[in-house]
Amino acid sequence: MRLRHSDHSARRRARPFAVVQSVGLASLAIVVLLLIPGGPFGNPVGVSTASPTNPRVTEVAAPAHAPVQPSRIRSAPSAPSSAKLTVESPSDAQAIPTAFWGTNILAENKLGSADAVSIADTPVTFVRFPGGTLGEQFNYTSGVITNDNGSTTLAITSVPSFIQVCKDMGCSAILQLPAEINSPSTAAYYANYVVHTLGFQPAYWEIGNSPPNWDHYNVPWSKWDTTKGITLTPLLFAQLVGNYIRAVKAVDPQAKFTALALGAANYDKSWITELVSLDGENLSGVSIHSYTFGPSPPNLTWANFLSNLNGQYSLQTQVRLTREYITAACSTCSTKVFVTESNGAENAYESMDSSFAGTLYVAAATVQALHVRLTNLDWFCYACEFGGTWRVGGTKWSQQYTLFSQMMTRLGPDTLWTNTTGPSTFYATTTYGPSGMALLLVNTNLTTSVDVNLSHTGIIAGSIVTREQWVNGTNGPKNSTFTLTGSVKIGPMAIWVLTVPQSSVTTGGSHHTALHLSVGNTRMKPHPGKRTHKGKAPVRASASPIVPTSFIGVSLGPLPMHALTPGNDLAPSWSERAMRGGE
Questions:
Q1: How far is CA 355 from the centre of its chain?
Q2: Same domain flag for 401 and 501
Q3: How does residue 263 score in pLDDT terms, banded at 50, 70 and 90?
Q4: Which of 383, 411, 439 is the last residue of a domain?
């Protein structure tokens, strides 16, 4: 992805409400209601408000270019649609990979100890640095950033500063090596500096950021203002990656690598095929970027933006295709898929990212990523001049940050296979951990509720459950408890995290039924390598049998076999001249 340097404050001016023509007392009442943010018709707003559970979340204005929504959002709600969840037993849980929760940190923005605390208040354990296009432009030792036109700026966050913050929050890092300059010796110099001078071992080195977009391939930074690069082909890039791996391995024998970072706008199977065919045995991952791309539609609405969750640019489609390309190129390779940048959109739809539509998109994409058991997912970005930024300026926090700090932290460290039937605008996944079962439920439909049947989830009837609910972006998530019966009703434009205590969940040992009286050994663990939220010590799950007197239903047959097949990403495969950035 290419970073933009647009007027950040301008894009966050408040969105005007629609003007409503009305006559008579009844119509006047409707006008008054429409002018109330988050009124009964659910007019979308783009703010995150202060919360008792997270006082750092302060009000953030909506983007200047957020589209006015179609009038049907304010029409009478449609009849609810229906959905059904079938969840495998907690005894069959799979650990969420250690690299799953990630974000991008940009060297051109300030990063300090307060940021370490803010990031630690989310599930993030992995951080990609120097972030985005800066991976091709950043000099590790001098801190100089060379822009595409040859001009230079000085990074605000240096490599030593980043490493200190990373250590403070207990993170692991994906460090990007500049590859557009085609200088393996520079990469080796930087690796030696990080590992041996600074004493920091990154989890992965990433080689290349969207190489089809390179303008200066094989040109040193000092000549970027006058010289265009030679034409880069997939084969040349694969050869470059091999040269980089050999050079870095010479100074960092423990090094692991991912490469490519290709976005959907130029998604081409030939890049992955050549890369994996030549370097697959030495790559832990092929990295891709997941955004909604493409030309602007005639009518930019939340509905057509959110429809991309099931289209050619969806995360699940990109991951599926990448896995197919990897397998076809090297059937014996254990190369995984890394998504080292992701958010709702780039280009035409970027104005959506900071609205609640963007938050809905990110929540649904998280469901998809957990469902396909993705190895790594790095959201773009923690703090940057981009619609999906978490930190806005120095003191404000976006809705996406609120989503991760207040809702995603309620998910467990393990994932349970969840089979969902229902409308294409409903997304659901299930996690498990010391606090019990947590269901992440997202309804992206703008007008229609969803009645969700929970009869095959293993939850005991009459259980008292906790609900973190965020509807239409208003006033932040709300926490409540209630007695769960056989189903729940999720309103339009809503995100739920439903937490069920361990004592209210059956823990059988078979994949083929959702509910059991027998109990197997649960595999409970906190996120590996990360302290639990707020520093609390993890609690091991009890393996004591639970024999409930009643259940919310019983599964009458096996799950379809296609629903039991896991993805292939269950865990991670787990000189002065060089300083100038060219040979």
A1: 16
A2: no
A3: confident
A4: 411
Q: Which domain holds residue 507?
A: 81-91+415-564
Q: Do 401 and 437 share a structural domain? A: no
Query: What per-residue confidence (pLDDT) applies to 554?
Result: 30
Is residue 556 situated within a structural domain?
yes
Contact yes or no for 342/287 (Cβ under 8 A): no
- pLDDT at residue 305 tops 70: yes
Query: What's the predicted TM-score (pTM) here?
Result: 0.79
Give a yes or no: residue 377 inside a domain. yes
Q: 412 to each of 256, 451, 477, 563, how far by Cα in Å? A: 27, 24, 18, 21
pLDDT band at 398 (very low <50, low <70, confident <90, very high): very high
Inter-axis angle of helices 356-371 and 315-329, to 10 degrees? 30
What would you report as the CA-atom Rg of the chain, rounded to the nearest whole angstrom? 24
Tell whether 401 and 433 lie within a shared domain. no
| DSSP 8-state symbol, 453 | E
Write out the two tokens for 132. 């985005």
**Taking the mean position of all CA atoms in its chain, how far away is CA 521?**
30
The count of domains in the chain is: 2
Q: Measured between alpha carbons, how far is 470 from 401 in angstroms, rounded to an integer? A: 13
If asked whether residues 375 and 419 sit together in one domain, one would say: no
Beta bridge partners of 433: 436
- What does the CA dihedral 121, 533, 345, 563 come to, rounded to 10 degrees? 180
Assess whether the previous peptide bond of 130 is cis (omega < 30° from 0): yes
Report yes or no on 76 lying in a domain.
no
CA–CA separation, 129 vs 138, rounded Å? 10
User: Which of 411, 439, 459 marks a domain boundary?
Assistant: 411
Most distant CA pair in the chain, distance: 80
Task: Indicate the average pLDDT of the chain.
Answer: 79
CA 169/CA 378 separation, integer angstroms: 16
Residue 277 and residue 329: Cα distance in Å, rounded?
Answer: 5
- Is there a domain that residue 574 lies in? no
Are 472 and 519 part of one and the same domain?
Answer: yes
